Structure formats: structure tokens, C-alpha cells
Amino acid sequence: MAEPEQDIPDNTASFVLTSTDIAEGESLGKKHELNVFGGNGDNLSPQLTWAGAPEGTKSFVLTCFDPDAPTGSGWWHWVAFNIPDDVSSLDTGVGTVTGMPAGTIQARNDFGEKNFGGACPPPGVVHRYEFRVHALNIEALDLDEGATPALVGFMTHVHTIATAKLTAVYTR
Questions:
Q1: 123-171 pLDDT per residue, tens
Q2: Which of 37, 67, 88, 145 is the most buried (most CB within 10 A)?
């Protein structure tokens, strides 16, 4: 039996996430490696640009998640929300060296910091780093900087109208 048609538009093909620092399926550079827990990189967030957000987008949420972390639940490297709808790119180092756009809130990542936390997989193991930008149908999530990544994810899921994704890999 065929699946019933849904009235939800598929905007994902036109909403894209790109970077001058990383490419889909390619390795992150040393500058994106963590500088603690055995890492000795620069801990810089990559440059990111998104385009093609659907009509009705009122804000964005940015996440970086490692589904391969040996925790049973992955690892949140970056969670930023309430990014204004007129923002469509972030420079290298934003969220670590320089501040986020006005109004943006960074939640605490799994390193316990409110910033980008670089790649730091166990030596010899390849991990994926999934960068996602979610276009939301509301101007702001009603959360503060104390919100956990799981709570931000829940609220994001409820209000997402499209998601753009870029996945890089890294090994030490």
C-alpha cells in the first residue's frame, strides 16, 4: 500500500549549508580540533553559510553533533539558537574567538562550555561531525542559556520548517 501524500512541503533540497573550511564527507582541519582532552588543535568553529531558507523562516538554530562518540548518546559540540533570520553565514572562529550575532544564545555543549567545542575523537577512530542549520517558524525559542542541548533539540524539532546539513569527519 502506498504512503498517503503529506501536505508538508519538502524544502530540504533548496535549503543548503556550505563552508569554505569544510566539505561534505571530507576531514575537518587541525584548526577545528579541540585543544584539551588530548587534542592540540586551535578549537575554531568552521566558516558556515546557508542559503535557500524557506518562506516563513523567522530564526535559525545551529548544531554540531558527533553521533559516533562512545557515550551511548552521541556528543553535542555546538548548540546555538535564536540566530536572527537575516543572518546567513558565520565566520571561522565565531562562537569561540568572536561573539555570535546579536540575540543568539549558545547552550552549554557536552564539554560544559557555551561555545564551539572542536573535534576530539579517540586516537585512530573516525567520527562524523554533523553541522545542521534549522529554519524555524518562530522568532525565538523561549529558552535561556541554561537550556540543555536535548531541550533545545526538542523545541527546535517542534518549530523546524527545513534543515540544511553538512557532515565532515575527523580522526586523530
A1: 999 999 999 999 999 999 999 999 999 999 999 999 999 999 999 999 9
A2: 88
